[in-house]
Every structure is written in structure tokens, then in C-alpha cells.
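This section describes the prediction task in plain terms. A model, or a person checking by hand, is given the sequence of a single protein chain and must write out its three-dimensional structure as a string of C-alpha cells. No templates, partner chains or ligands are provided. The sample shown here is typical of the held-out split.
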Amino acid sequence: MLEKEELRRLKGDIICPRLDVFDGIHEELEKGTAIGFECPVGQASAELFRKLYEEVTRTTLSVDTCTKGGKFLAYRATYVCHHNVRDRGRKASAKDTQCPWRLHVVSKTRSSMSRISDNLHASCGLVVRGLGHHNHATDIPAALKHRRVSDATEAKLKSLFRHYHSPSTALQTLDMELREEWGEEYPLKAADRSLLPDLSYVYRFVSLSFHPAYPSSHPTVPIPIYACHSKQLITMQ
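The expected answer:
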């Protein structure tokens, strides 16, 4: 995480020396502050920033619009809070608060940056701006239970599956790790789906992760999983 001493101000905006977050970044974005990062241009930088921002703010963002490639534009996207459900034709979702929060990210090409001398794009591979405010709490179980499962949690699940855990025992292991690591903070951490997903998600994840390697001849494509404490692959009928 960036320290406040590392940040530089340019006409009220902020320049960060590398792609990372800092304490109070969401509050700065809510105030309308543009934040530039001295980093490589392109979509990869934008996606990495999204993940870092989600982790520090305990929120989840979804891509609303994006543009890729061009002479002067490498990548541009608008992220929306996932409490703003885009497909209103589907069944009403408990997480849909029609949250107005937006995050705009722009990454201009190096050839474009060399032509600019008076704003963040002159030296920054990525510029981020916020728009609006969340219309819901972000640090309560009702909100945390809808978060996207993190890459780190998925990596842990894959490791557990390779050590012959079933979905149930893998989930129990994650739960025990949270209890040991967070103590009194465990109840709030356990409500965070990015850290502790629901069992149905774990079943889907193991199916998507390992089914191509262990195809089944069953026409309904059952979920192949490893039995806990056994090295024999079993198939859930």
C-alpha cells in the first residue's frame, strides 16, 4: 500500500509513483479527485487496479462499458458497483440497490502521452476518476455476502482440491483458517463471500476447474470431485 508521503499533487489531483492503493483512496475519488498512476498502459493495469481497489474498499465492481485499442487510447472503461444490477429483466435481486457509484479508468497510449504536458496523462499510464456515492453500507454482512470470490480464495480452493478435499471439507478448511486468523473479527470476515463462498459456488467452481481434466461419459455431466482423505476420484450423481 502507498504511503501518503509518496503521493504528489498536480492541480488538486494525485499522482502515484506505482500502481497501488492508499488509505483514503475511496474518499478522494468520491470528492472528484482524479488519481493517476505511473504504470504500464493498457487493460492489465486497469484490471489490476480494480482488484486492488475492491480489496481495500471491500466492494465489488463490474464492467459497464469499455473501449480497447486505438492510436491514442489503449483502454477505457466504466466500472459500476455490483449493487447496481444491470439486467432488470431478470428476477429481482436482493443485492440490487441501483447504486449510482461509478469508477472511470482511462489508459492512453505512449504516443498520446508524449503530446500532453499539463495533466495526469503526461506521465501516468492509468488515470482513475470516481462519480457519485454508494447508496448502501459496504462493511455489513448484508453487503459483504454478495462480493465476488477473490483470486486468492479460488487459489486456496484449487490447492485443497488437489489434496483430495471435497467441496464440503474445503469450505470447512477455509472457515477454520478464518477463525484462527481473525479471532473476534471472524463473524464479519465469514460473512464476506470473497473470503468464504457458499457451498453451491464451491461445487460449481470445482466442476469448472477440474471437469475438463476428468471428463465424464454421463450425459448430464455430473460434477467430478475428489473424496476427502481418498485418492480415488468419485462422481456425484
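For orientation: The first strand starts at residue 8 and ends at 10.
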